[in-house]
Amino acid sequence: MNQVVKDILTGIDGQSFAIVKVLGFAVVLVFILIEVAAFITGKPFDGQAYGIGAGAAIAAMGGAIKLSETSEPKP
Fold it and tell me: Is residue 73 a part of any domain in this protein?
């Protein structure tokens, strides 16, 4: 499991963490945690508004990943 997460979050070389991938992972993790907390406390959570903002952030991160491919260390 640990190796799978490392493979997801690292760049081409498999050693250095790609900040845009780490931030994308954090966005998804925060969404899940907020949704669970809202369910437990019974407070409303507007997942659609969060999703729009998170989607824009993930789209920007996708563009950043594509742009950073040329600067990543080669294996």
Answer: no
